[in-house]
Amino acid sequence: MVPFNPKNRHDAFHSLVMKWRYLEFKNISAILNFLIVASFISCGSDKDSIKPTITNITESVYSSATVQPDSLYQVYAAVSGILDQNLVEEGDTVSWGTPIAQIINNAPQLNVENTRLSLELAIDNYSGNNAVLRTLEDEIRAARLRVQNDSVNYFRQKNLWEQNIGSAVEYDSKKLAYELSRNNLTLLISNFERTKNELKTKVIQAENNYKTAQITTDDFTVESKIQGTVYALYKNHGESISMLEPLAAIGSSQKFIIELLVDEVDIVKIKLGQPVLVTLDAYQGQVFEAIVNKIYPRKDERTQTFMIEAGFKHPPEVLYPGLAGEGNIVVGEKENAMSIPREYLVNESQVLTKDGLVSVQLGLRNLEVVEILDGINEETNILKPE
Predict the structure, then answer these.
(1) Helix or strand or coil: residue 259?
(2) Is the CB of residue 331 less than 8 Å from the CB of residue 82?
């Protein structure tokens, strides 16, 4: 028998501690995992264990919902001025071209009068009794007579000269007079055509200015661009009107749409034609069916959401712009899917069994259950984590 030696006992204990520290640093992650699983198992009990069930599952994306009239648009004035009067009231039904508001401004009226006077002057210069062209036409007629007379004199003198009758000076004089009168006629005709074109252009310009002034005057009567209902009037009599501020809001009287705001993390799941289940605060306890018919591609940086448009399948009997509610866009449905309650899921991709944590592949999910595609089967007992 080896006698008891306190030193040997101390060395053995020290060696055991060093081995434990070595194992601790080498396998620390395994130890932590073991402790986590052990804590789950110790907290879970057999009565908290379940097996996956086969059921129908539906996945949906939540969104806020707001009802708006279809084709709703803000009415703007094309000119600035003072609102003389609103020609309709809120709630009135209007057609395309119905006057909405009348704006007053004296400057455009004076501009119309000035352009009208300019047009009359241009027309008178072009074809009136005191037309500039009439004077030029008289000068051309006189020049033609002069050419005719000089031509007769020239050719008579030429015939005489060819017969050796008369002097060279007289012949050259008649020839020069004829050439000068002929050149003068050519210049007068050219000047006439140029002046005629210039005056005609001025008439056209004056007509265009007058039409533009009239159009501007017409813009002082603001008209509806669609057939629908006047939902809002933003200005009152006597208020200043700017081209940057809306005067009214007009939209469809019968057709309404649902504006849905979807978080950016869910937008990739949304597709045209997907069904939407809508609840409205004004219709407590009722669910309305709708269909996604438009996805706006631009993200609202302020709210970090995307706009989705949906149309009612069977709209409520009474709707008003701005009615609020909630929408659930159905992005997936599956029959006979193996699923478990969401509270049995660990770390979003694992489940707890008596053998420890098992990684699983997930499919559809909603607020209550999640589909399991792979990793466990229908006979696997799953513990509820604490």
Answers:
(1) strand
(2) no
How far apart are the C-alpha atoms of 42 and 181, rounded to whole Å?
A: 127
Q: What does the block give as tokens for 286?
A: 């009722």
Identity (one letter) of the amino acid at 351?
V
- Averaged pLDDT score across all residues of the chain: 81
Whole-angstrom CA distances from 362 to 268, 341, 374, 385 are 18, 12, 7, 18
How many helices (H) and strands (E) the chain has is answered by 5, 19
CATH code, domain carrying 262 = 2.40.30.170
33 within a domain of the structure (yes/no): no
- How far is residue 303's CA from residue 190's CA, in Å, rounded to a whole number? 72
Judge if 215 and 226 occupy the same domain.
Answer: no
Contact indicator for 108, 216 with CB cutoff of 8 Å:
yes
Structure tokens that stand for 317 in this block:
């009997």
372/348 Cα distance (integer angstroms):
12
Q: How far apart are CA 219 and CA 234, in angstroms?
A: 18
Alpha carbon dihedral 260, 266, 270, 275, in 10-degree steps, equals: -60
Q: Are 50 and 344 in contact (CB under 8 A)?
A: yes
Closest CA to 338 of 365, 307, 305: 365
For residue range 339-374, what is the model confidence (pLDDT) as tens digits?
Answer: 888 888 888 888 888 888 888 888 877 667 888 888
pLDDT digits 0-9 by tens, 260-275: 999 999 999 999 999 9
N-term to C-term CA, the chain: 54
Angle at the Cα of 241 from the Cα atoms of 240 and 244, rounded to 5 degrees = 130
User: What's the domain range around 270?
Assistant: 44-70+255-386
CA angle 5, 10, 12 (to 5 degrees): 100
| Rg of the chain (C-alpha set) | 48
